[in-house]
């Protein structure tokens, strides 16, 4: 039997919150409760990006396999919901952030996520919001049955 792929589209214009901390609702019972490999794509609106920091996406999918290594001095305050990094392209006022399915490694989940209300966060460090990220974005989470 063919392994199915489910795409969950998250458009920041439909979320609640700020662009870098958007809250979404999705009823995960719409997909089977089986193990998944997760990849994602991301595209932001055109903007003037002045931040030279790395933009990272964090989504609490209740995964337990993506972990951030920290220093012994600061083991707390870091997020384990890391999904991947974003790239940027363009010049001047015509920049945008993006990620393709080949940009980041796959994430593995033992089953579908459990939290129907969740936040998509974009940070420059695990504890600092990425700014400025103006305009909207589209994040597509692709769940492929393992």
Describe what this molecule looks like in 3D.
- The protein is mainly beta.
- It is 0% helix and 47% strand.
- It is built from no helices and eleven strands.
- Strands 1, 2, 3, 4, 5, 6, 7, 8, 9, 10 and 11 form an eleven-stranded antiparallel beta sheet that branches.
- A hairpin with a 2-residue loop joins strand 2 and strand 3 (21-25).
- The mean pLDDT is 86.
Produce a short descriptive summary.
A hairpin with a 2-residue loop joins strand 2 and strand 3. The protein has strands spanning 5-11, 16-18, 21-25, 36-44, 55-59, 82-91, 94-99, 107-109, 117-125, 128-129, 137-145. The chain has a single domain, classed as Jelly Rolls (Sandwich), CATH 2.60.120.
Write a concise keyword list for the protein shown above:
single chain, 146 residues, mainly beta, eleven-stranded antiparallel sheet, 11 strands
- Mean pLDDT equals 86
- CATH class bucket: Mainly Beta
Query: What string, H for helix and E for strand, traces the elements in order?
Result: EEEEEEEEEEE
Question: DSSP helix count?
Answer: 0
- Radius of gyration in whole Å, from Cα? 15 Å
N-to-C span = 12 Å
Helical fraction equals under 10%
* Structural domains: how many: 1
Any idea what the CATH architecture is?
A: Sandwich
Q: Which fold name is given in CATH as the topology?
A: Jelly Rolls
Q: State which percent range the strand residues make up.
A: over 45%
Give a quick account of the main beta sheet: strands, pairing sense, barrel closure: 11 strands, antiparallel
Runs with pLDDT <50, length 5+?
none
The shape, in one word, is: globular
Q: Tell how many strands the DSSP assignment holds.
A: 11
- The assigned structural class equals mainly beta
């Amino acid at each position: 039997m063919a392994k199915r792929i489910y795409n969950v589209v998250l458009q920041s214009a439909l979320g609640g919150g700020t662009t870098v901390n958007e809250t979404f609702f999705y009823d995960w019972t719409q997909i089977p409760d089986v193990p998944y490999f997760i990849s994602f794509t991301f595209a932001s609106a055109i903007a003037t990006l002045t931040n030279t920091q790395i933009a990272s996406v964090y989504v609490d999918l209740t995964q337990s396999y993506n972990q951030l290594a920290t220093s012994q001095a600061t083991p707390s305050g870091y997020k384990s919901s890391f999904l991947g990094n974003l790239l940027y392209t363009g010049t001047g006022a015509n920049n945008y952030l993006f990620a393709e399915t080949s940009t980041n490694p796959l994430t593995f989940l033992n089953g579908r996520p459990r939290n129907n209300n969740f936040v998509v966060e974009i940070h420059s460090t695990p504890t600092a919001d990425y700014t400025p990220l103006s305009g909207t974005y589209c994040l597509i989470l692709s769940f492929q049955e393992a």
